[in-house]
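Chapter summary example: a protein plus adenosine monophosphate.
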Amino acid sequence: MLNIVLFGPPGAGKGTQSQKLIARYNLVHLSTGDLLRSQIAQGTELGLRAKKLMDEGLLVPDEVVIGMIESQLANNTSAAGFIFDGFPRTVPQAESLDALTQRYNTGVTCMVALEVNEEELVTRLLERGKTSGRPDDQDETKIRKRVTVYNTETAQVAGYYATQGKFHALNGIGAIEDIFGQICAIIDRHQGAATSVTDSQEATDEVKA
Ligand code: AMP
């Protein structure tokens, strides 16, 4: 299975690149932000509680988003893999993702972080807010709050994957196609590495047999 964590601050281009990656690699897109917005749209109790935090640019509690990811994995057992977009955002979420994927004898293949400076993020999100209808995209103070939350709480997740040799950072400013090409090159390297380990293990097994 190919499980990609697409990482980066709000407005870095994760959603755009996710759409291209699901088409290229036949993956299921799991965005915790989208899942939460769907709960809000359905008017569920979870959605009502999450909305208050989301409107302030704060994180929703770990157990809420971990529970949503757990049920999405259970509902998509025949998927070729997943793109995790906006998840994990804390180290406990990253630890849970490892535990959840292990249940299916798989794990996170790699994390790709899109790096974009704060001023560019603010410009992009205010522009997106004109059409997205998202309250958290329409107020500069809330946007800056989300970037601060990313820098203080979420950026540590990069270290979690770096210690596993799975972390890659890319400049998220540039042509969408160029950035897409760079992400694919990283994924293909990881896939190639996984395949050659399997191949060499099979070759060893054949020799033993
Ligand atoms: P996004 O669509 O990824 O920008 O997420 C929008 C908002 O949803 C965030 O500002 C958080 O309030 C909440 N959210 C989304 N994903 C998570 C997550 N993994 N952990 C905590 N809160 C989240």
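Key point: The longest helix spans residues 176-208.
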